[in-house]
Amino acid sequence: MRLRSDRTRGVLMVLVGVFVLSPDALILRLVDTDRWSLIFWRGLLTALTLLVCFVAIYRRDVFKYLGAIGRYGLVGGFISATSSILFVTSIILTSVANTLVIISAAPLFTAISSRMFLRESVPARTWSRYSRHSLASQLYSAGVWAAARCWATSVPSAPPSASQAI
């Protein structure tokens, strides 16, 4: 399959990333181990995956490129590791839904930060799209909440015992 543009390639990469990472939070909840073991194995497997990708891309020059990451590469690695630790901790200490809703607000915080600190202008269409998506997300959440409330009130909490049935 030949991709016609960088945009098509980018959209395809995002879709693959979403399908690969979507079950991540749920899988973390299903793993029955302590937090630090989970963080260790998640970090180790991420590092090995990145190393395999680097070797596949750069072949013999892999160590030259890894050594050239410099100060900014180390800062980026530190931020990525911190993010992973906080993500796993958040999944363990609160609900998956809370964690993912907070993460989904990251583009908004990025747009606001770029406006405040970098003095970048954010196009009106960006604010419009974010507002519409935020409203749609809130309506969806309200619908799920209402459905769950209706279901919870219509289902008996426990089956009747033999003495209650008579």
Q: How much strand? A: under 5%
Helix content: over 70%
Number of strands: 0
| Large-scale geometry | globular
- Unreliable segments of 5+ consecutive residues: none
| Total number of helices | 9
Largest sheet, in brief, is: none
CA radius of gyration is 23 Å
Rounded mean pLDDT is 81
Broad structural category: mainly alpha
End-to-end CA span: 69 Å
Order of helices and strands: HHHHHHHHH
Question: Which terms would index this structure?
Answer:
166 residues, mainly alpha
Describe, in short, the structure shown.
The chain has 166 residues and is mainly alpha-helical. It has helices at residues 6-21, 24-30, 35-58, 62-67, 70-93, 96-104, 106-117, 124-154, 162-165.
Detailed description of the structure:
This protein has about 170 residues and is mainly alpha-helical. Helix 3 packs antiparallel against helix 5.
Helices and strands, with pairings:
Layout: H1 6-21, H2 24-30, H3 35-58, H4 62-67, H5 70-93, H6 96-104, H7 106-117, H8 124-154, H9 162-165
